[in-house]
Fold this protein.
Amino acid sequence: MSAKPTVFSGIQPSGNLHIGNYLGAIKNFAANQAQYHNYFCVVDHHAITLPQEPAALRQQTLELANAYLAAGLDPTEVTLFVQSHVSEHTEMGWMLNTFVYFGELKRMTQFKEKAGKRQEEVNVGIFDYPVLMAADIVLYDADFVPVGEDQRQHVELTRDIANRVNYRLGEGTLVVPEALIKKEGARIMGLDDPTKKMSKSATTPRNYIALLDDADTIRQKLRAAVTDSGADIRAGEDKPAVTNLLTIYSLFADVPVPVLEERYAGKGYADFKRDLTDVVIDSLAPFQARLRELDANPDYTAAVLKEGAERARAKASTVLTRVKGRMGYVLPFS
Ligand code: TYM
């Protein structure tokens, strides 16, 4: 048994990974891995809640596994696996469904955003998605769930579910997890519209910088990034676009925002954007190089994911059996 607290987090292989995913999630996973007992997952079951081209889903799944590795996750320190390789996730999801209310899921912000006015027409997977996410987390007795701000509500729901399970089936059935959300970078906004978060499913690629964008593309996207009225480079509620760009700069360069504000006092957007562009390109370059190496060596990734699934299954199956036993299921005869 590890004395370290356990961390679980997942990312959907559902499109272009972007610097919001990196700064809000992956970078922190890698930076803090030595402090925790870690499980990181490629949540392919979540990705299919929107139709995925089969070939694209396959490619995105492996690419996301490589992105975790390229960001510095060490497979000896971390259990890295694909959700669908551990069937306990869907089984636990089914059981947890019976502890969740229809109205609760209907009130989830992400559901409301995704379903819009067409709630009656969206697939049930989109509706039920937070319950599978709760299953992901509780299967590993996770203490902490590092995520961006947009997932806070889903972790809160997971806590409610775990508490309900414990009330019905006895204390200690499930660990009640806590979200770990950084103050900086938890909500990187769109480059084309700083009032909405940067998103994989954005309608235009000008919304995001993808982790695989080349230098020219990054240059163009940052040149086109919207700014606020007034020339000064400072953060503030009245300056959502510049605040976002300062946050991105600060996290990549590891320089606090107030220091940047001082550095650019009296200078214009042109200087600021030029330096920001260099910082983003230079910070992503080593990550992109490692990603290319990993892409060229699929056997390595396969071996990591195979071992990850075995380790994950070993833990998940004990938790699943614990819950089934307490619910009164007849456990399989051995
Ligand atoms: P997903 O795949 O949308 O996003 C992966 C991670 O990136 C964070 N993120 C952001 N952070 C900052 N700024 C942004 N603009 C931004 N956009 C995304 C997300 O908060 C997340 O941490 N439901 C989850 C996947 C999931 C999961 C889980 C997470 C499934 N099971 C269990 C934690 C634990 C999702 O759709 O993330």
